[in-house]
Task: inverse folding
């Protein structure tokens, strides 16, 4: 389960090389953020959770047994830490219906429907997705990972990755229609 | 190809996951069906918005700089923990107690003798009967008595060590 590159990176970190841990952050930042965002959404305390995740990774590296790929192990740590953070701070979440009410006002004909408004709505659409669907979306688009990489990270078949991705988009499209937001999404992206 | 099937295939069409035949059929359908063309437009906008998500990923430097401070603190705590591990506390305590007992062996003997000259039966029991019992159990060697003392002091110091370790973790 170990690639030479991962093995070398972990060995350097365990020797106390700070620069190497920075390399790890650079390499897995997308995975960590995607995992955390798929659980927590775009919340203010994301930065704190991400820092906690990296500290967990740092502390856990000496006992990492290479039974899975490094990326998959990091993803699991990030996910578990985000779940803990969500359990501890659940009261911070806004009710989803309220968000939709706000988003729906953008459909007024006299209001310019811009990218930023769509961005807000996208966040709500993502939040409503099943966690696995959302994780695949975040890994694909935020972390810019290929289907194969996502399959390795999430430890699922490539076919399942594609199915999750298509179902996620279909679910978002359905929600756009049922929430009456279609007008803004039919136009040009800018 | 009907609208229902096209709608179902659109996510895969956008992702370029369809066969060339299926892709051509979807393309043909959306060129003549207003409803499916609008649905395709929604999917395309959704795709572009999703692609912009990566702009929200903070640069690694912004993550690493504050992290470095926390990692340095974590390393310091870990060194402290290693210094106060059970093994090191035990070894240190054993060594310290052995030295103390050796240096003060006459004073300790004297203390027991004085306690034996005391006035209460309880003191006599503690100072004479128990040590005697221990010494006899140990085949008459005074190391048995020393061991009990060492163990008690070890226990106290280990407790203090653990308390300190917990404090260091905070």
Result:
């Amino acid at each position: 389960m170990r690639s030479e590159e991962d093995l070398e990176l972990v060995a350097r970190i365990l020797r106390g090389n700070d620069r190497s841990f920075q390399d790890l952050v650079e390499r897995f930042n997308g995975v960590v953020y995607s995992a955390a965002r798929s659980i927590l959404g775009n919340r203010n305390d994301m930065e704190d959770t991400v820092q906690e995740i990296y500290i967990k990774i740092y502390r856990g590296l000496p006992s990492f047994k290479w039974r899975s790929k490094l990326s998959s192990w990091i993803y699991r740590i990030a996910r578990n830490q985000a779940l803990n953070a969500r359990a501890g701070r659940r009261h911070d979440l806004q009710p989803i219906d309220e968000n939709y009410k706000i988003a729906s006002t953008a459909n007024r004909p006299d209001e310019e429907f811009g990218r930023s408004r769509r961005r807000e709505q996208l966040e709500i659409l993502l939040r409503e997705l099943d966690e696995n669907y959302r994780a695949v979306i975040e890994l694909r688009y935020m972390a810019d990972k290929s289907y194969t990489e996502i399959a390795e990270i999430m430890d699922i078949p490539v076919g399942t990755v594609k199915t999750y991705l298509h179902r996620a988009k279909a679910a978002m499209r359905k929600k756009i229609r049922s929430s009456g937001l279609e007008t803004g999404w039919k136009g040009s992206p800018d | 190809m009907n609208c229902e099937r096209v709608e179902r295939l659109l996510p895969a069409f956008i992702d370029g996951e369809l066969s060339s035949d299926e892709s051509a059929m979807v393309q043909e359908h959306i060129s003549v069906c207003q409803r499916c063309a609008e649905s395709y437009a929604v999917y395309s906008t959704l795709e572009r918005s999703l692609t912009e998500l990566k702009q929200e990923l903070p640069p690694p430097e912004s993550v690493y700089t504050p992290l470095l401070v926390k990692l340095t603190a974590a390393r310091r705590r870990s060194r402290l923990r290693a210094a106060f591990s059970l093994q090191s506390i035990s070894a240190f305590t054993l060594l310290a107690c052995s030295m103390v007992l050796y240096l003060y062996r006459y004073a300790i003997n004297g203390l027991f003798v004085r306690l034996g000259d005391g006035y209460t039966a309880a003191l006599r029991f503690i100072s004479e009967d128990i040590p005697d019992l221990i010494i006899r159990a140990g085949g008459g060697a005074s190391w048995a008595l020393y061991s009990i003392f060492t163990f008690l002091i070890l226990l106290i110091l280990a407790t203090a060590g653990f308390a300190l370790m917990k404090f260091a973790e905070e």
Notes: Chain B touches chain A through 36 residues (CB under 8 Å). DSSP finds eight helices and no strands in chain B.
